[in-house]
Amino acid sequence: MQVLILYLLIWFTGGCFGSFLMVVGLRVPIHQSIVFPRSHCSTCHRTLRFYELIPILSYLIQKGRCRNCQQRISILHPLAEALTGFIFLYTFHTYLFFPKEGLFIIGFISFGIIFIISDIYYQLLPDRLILFFFLWVFLGRLVIHPFPFSIYLFSGFGFFSFFYLLYQFSSTPIGGGDIKLFGIIGLLLGYDLTLVAIMIACLSALLFSFPLLVSKRITSKHPIPFAPFIFFGTILTYFSQDIVTTWFMLGN
Ligand SMILES: [Zn+2]
Which of 71, 117, 122, 147 has the greatest number of CB atoms lying within 10 Å of its CB? Predict the structure, then answer.
């Protein structure tokens, strides 16, 4: 019972943090302060009260609408909150005895959620945030590196250069922000796992966009944001890296 309460508390804390990440992802790209103005309805601009800011619960109680103007609230809000909650819980459960690595992971996933929101809403990955993300991963890898640090460094530099050249000399519809992300993920995962992460990202993006392309809900001129798929691939690869590594060894 106590364990259950503890887990619920961690999930809830994660949810509150997810709510904060959502605010960062929505405001930083358009140069707004993350503190002021306080959270408000984007339609009627009424400031939200504390009981309207409870992760997930507020959304459910209000049936997904603003209490004042009845405008629909994006499902991304409770989704980001629930997801961050589960990631907090999973990380706590898995890395209980490796607090440094747990913190490192929570950090990079938090950046991931901010970038996903920013890419979905503005098709933009702000340079300021990318710089902080790079510093977090660089310092984290400097402290925690199962393989020599130089391998991660080469991998990061390699992936960045490869995608930069691809961007310069081909018509691949890949954004400048995505190139920097690939470099940072190369630094995070090392070269073999990064390849797996990119593969998962491309496959999932293809599976997601194919039905939308066929039904003409999107066109090839308006590509879907890629950052959500990059982070999906990266986080999945990170959490299953033991399985992936074994699979690689079997192939050799
Ligand atoms: Zn409203």
Answer: 117
**Is the backbone of residue 64 left (phi > 0), alpha (psi -120 to 50) or beta?**
left
Interhelix angle 149-169/191-214, rounded to 10 degrees, is 40
Residue 220 above 80 pLDDT?
A: no
Q: Give residue 44 CA to ligand 1 midpoint distance, Å.
A: 4
Name the amino acid, one letter, at 65.
R
How far, in Å, is the centroid of ligand 1 from the Cα of 227?
29
Mean pLDDT of 100-108: 90
Ligand 1 center to 216 CA (angstroms): 32
**Ligand 1: centre distance to CA 67 (Å):** 7
Question: Which residue from 105, 88, 117 is spatially nearest to 21, judged by alpha carbons?
Answer: 117
Instruction: Give the predicted TM-score (pTM) of the model.
Output: 0.87
Q: What are phi and psi of 72, to 5 degrees?
A: -65, 140
